[in-house]
Amino acid sequence: MFTRLLAAGALAALALTPVAAKDAPAAPPAEAPRTYAPVDFDKSHDPENILLLDLSNGQRVAIRLMPDWAPNHVERIKTLTRAGFYDGVIFHRVIEGFMAQSGDPTGTGRGGSELPDLKAEFNPMPHLRGTISMAHAASDDSANSQFFIMFYPRFSLDRKYTNFGRVIDGMDAVDAIARGEPPASPTVIVQASIAADGKPQKFAAPSAASAEITADMLSAPPSN
User: Fold this and answer.
1) Is residue 43 part of a domain?
2) Signal peptide location in the record (predicted)?
């Protein structure tokens, strides 16, 4: 009798054992945190991802584009640059201590290219001095052609605007961009190019006021 009770108890224990648990699939391993490539400040590296801006102040700015951070935005900038879209475009909104904005061929801040707007590619990369980021309207997914370059850090913009690169040379030229909304005498992008294309720096044409003075101009008019 006692043996039968033990056997019954053993069977009951087996019935309560969660046998199925050992066959359940293991939980997937936790995803490794996303890492972002650092900015390479060496201009000799990867010229396909260096944007050059020749400004009307006579200086050239080199910007490292970061496809690892925002591949679609970088591709858009390169496409428009190679199409000559930015040549002759002004910096139409330049706020002291904040940023310089360009990329609108109308110069009003309301224009863009004929290409479709881009979906946001927000990332955790901070808006530092020299950051280049994409401007957009009320919708996060309305970036098109306009961009801005930071004079000073502004971390409140992080994850609200798509950060896609950093100035790696010529920040003094950015600092020299004329201020105003719009500036009375705006700084112009004389030529935008991709470093891999090997375009030489282009300078603004001299104004009439600064045209060369010749000896004939200084001669007194003939007397009658």
Assistant:
1) no
2) 1-21
> Is 69 part of any domain?
yes
Find where tokens 């720096």 sit.
201
Q: What letter represents residue 202's amino acid?
A: K
Q: Beta strand pairing status for 50-55 and 89-90?
A: unpaired
Please write the tens of the pLDDT for every residue from 93-147. 999 999 999 999 999 999 999 999 999 999 999 999 999 999 999 999 999 999 9
Structural domain contains residue 184 = yes
Cα-Cα-Cα-Cα dihedral sign, residues 154, 155, 161, 167: positive
Helix (H, G, I), strand (E, B) or coil at 116: coil
C-beta separation of 138 from 33 below 8 A: no
Is 134 inside any structural domain? Answer: yes
If you search the block for the tokens 């001095």, which residue do you land on? 129
**CB of 145 closer than 8 Å to CB of 132:** no
pTM of the complete model beyond 0.70: yes
Length of the chain: 224
Q: Say if residues 147 and 101 touch (Cβ distance below 8 Å).
A: yes
168 vs 153: CA distance, rounded Å: 16
